Amino acid sequence: MGWTLLAAASLALMGWVFYQKRQPAPTPVRAANRPSARSPARRPAPRPPLPPTNPPPRTTPANRPAERPFRPPAPSTITGFPRPVADILEAQIAMVRHGISSGPVDGVAGVQTAAALRAFQRQQGLPPSGRLTAGTRARLIIDGPPRVSYRVTTNDLARLHPLPRTWLGKSRQSRLDYETLLELVAEKHRASRRFLRRLNPDFDWARARPGMEVTVPRVMPPTNTAKAAFVRIHLAGRTLDVFDHQSRIMAHFPCSIARRVDKRPVGRLQVEVVIENPNYTFNPAIFPESAEGRRLGRKLVLPPGPNNPVGVAWIGLSRPGYGIHGTPVPEHVGRTESHGCFRLANWDARYLVRLVQRGTPVFVDP
């Protein structure tokens, strides 16, 4: 009996030991992860995302994408005239009627267009933002298609002559007229030459014949013909503004100024003389950098014409040797500098001649 009970007890003990060995060991709780009795349990902070395997390259001047090529604005699909302008091209065209010039018409919202918009907004009593706002569009009305066809004439082609590259050669010409048809058509329509090329990509400007047609901006001349009360030139902004007797803006033009600061007259001047289609006296003393001038050692008189160094108009000022005048290259106005005078595009200089007279005050601001 005793041995039987002892054997049963031994078997029971061995079964319990075998059962314990088959159970998984409990996971110990670390002190760092054990919830505190005073604070709630904290979740582990999420891991930061891994950087991409091939990150995009940094944009540097060396690998920066090239600017999109210039394209002329698409023709407006809005019909019916008159109506508010629809884009920058139409705004540039419409501002001309108000005496406001943005330089050569090109449909681009650049610095000169922003300055022209500010001038128009001041003229109309609008906030001068320099942007084509809804209020500005409502005041800028276009009365016809912004693009029209121009037919090349026999007279256009007869005016074209090679332009000599030397001062002496220019002085021997009968007239310093246009050298190319592109130059003539661009100036006749106040347009950028580059813009005309884009409008007419298949037109061969060098082989044009009478009767051929090109697309041009439809620019109408300003309507105001009253005389100005005064003119104000802003050296910092490179602009010229014309005001009436109520100090309202009558006209606005981009303007080139002198390269050297000491050649920029500041203060009050006045108009002394107004000449259309002037000739030009080349003085070697004013062009010391000219090797030809040093060789000649004498003055030369150059004939009139749009390619005359002072363009188609000269407005002499009360400071000797200084004046406001045109230029053969309107695309450079406001972007390049002169020897001292104030340059305008030929079409703007021709309009300014109608607004000023002898004695008109001209204020030059820093």
What does this structure look like?
By secondary structure, this protein is of the alpha+beta class. Among the domains are: 83-142, Muramoyl-pentapeptide Carboxypeptidase, domain 1 (Orthogonal Bundle); 230-277 and 312-365, L,D-transpeptidase catalytic domain-like (Beta Barrel). The protein is 25% helix and 17% strand. It has helices spanning 2-22, 88-96, 111-123, 134-139, 154-158, 167-171, 181-188, 193-199, 291-296, 346-355; strands at residues 83-84, 141-142, 147-151, 213-217, 230-234, 239-243, 249-254, 267-276, 280-282, 300-302, 313-317, 323-325, 342-343, 361-365. The strands form four sheets. It has an eight-stranded mixed sheet, with helices on both faces. A two-stranded antiparallel ribbon has the order 1-2. Strand 6 (239-243) and strand 7 form a beta hairpin. The longest helix is centred in the N-terminal third of the chain and has 21 residues, at 2-22. The radius of gyration is 39 Å and the shape is globular.
